[in-house]
Amino acid sequence: MIEIRELRxxxxxxxGGLVEALHDVDLDVRPNxxxxxxxxxxxxxxxxLKCVAGLIPWDDGDILIDGTPVRGPGPDRSMVFQNxxxxxxxxxxxxxxxxxxxxxxxxxxxxxxxxxxxxKVGLAGFETxxxxxxxxxxQQRVGLARALAVQxxxxxxxxxxxxxxxxxxxxxxxxxxxxxxxxxxxxxFITHSMEExxxxxxxxxxxxxxxxxxxxxxxxxxxxxxxxxxxALERSGQYVEITAYLWDRLRDMHEEHRPAKAxx
Length: 264
Ligand SMILES: Nc1ncnc2c1ncn2[C@@H]1O[C@H](COP(=O)(O)OP(=O)(O)OP(=O)(O)O)[C@@H](O)[C@H]1O
Prior knowledge:
Blueprint: E1 2-12, E2 18-29, E3 34-38, H1 45-53, E4 60-65, E5 68-69, E6 77-80, H2 92-102, H3 107-120, H4 136-149, E7 154-158, H5 166-183, E8 186-190, H6 194-200, E9 203-208, E10 213-219, H7 230-235, H8 237-257
Parallel strand pairs: 3-8, 3-9, 6-7, 7-8
Antiparallel strand pairs: 1-2, 1-4, 4-5, 9-10
Helix pairs in contact: 2-3, 2-4, 3-4, 6-8
The structure holds adenosine-5'-triphosphate.
Adenosine-5'-triphosphate is lined by residues 11, 13, 19, 21, 39, 41-47.
């Protein structure tokens, strides 16, 4: 269970001005929940995720994981980044085993665990390749395997499939769903895609900008497991209805922030 209480974060901009990225954000993420986060560009989604990961400090408020305050990064949380953030000089095997190595796991054990995960994300046979030899989709599979290798309780995903083509994205979504169905981690997943938010999430958090706040939380009562027939799910009336609702809400938010037209 992740509890976020009255979280505030302000950055100092390049011109010295203050940018209020998060304003009194309150959010609970339930155990084993798949929570997706949607909102206009710049509303503070990445900032929120980095705070939960313990990668950046915040100004005010609390983040608790199973009752323990977050004070920095920890073995209970793993992050997957949009730009993969792999070690370019290291092989797939070493990239996936990296977190285990950092935790002092011996070579034989970490390589065994890494091989299992590499297979799970469909990369068996690529263990000795380097990231530069892989497509974007394959690199993100490595990123996912690396995050899972340390057996985190919480997986924090920052637009992980934003940089891959549509077809690859679909495959990765299906794979992520089936991994989550098997392991039941708690996932917080940022996306720009309404379809992706609905397809994956138990609930969709809608954030609004300036300052970044939670505007609404929309439950997604679509049946699980969803990985086996994503196509059928997307054709269901419920899916279409929720996606349309999110679109309306996002459009309203956009309108609210549009500068008023000059009179006359
Ligand atoms: N290091 C920083 N220094 C100054 N301002 C920052 C910094 N990081 C983010 N910001 C500002 O904070 C606000 C929130 O940024 P953040 O990246 O969290 O938003 P986001 O919702 O993830 O955006 P996007 O959807 O475009 O990725 C934005 O106005 C951004 O310009």
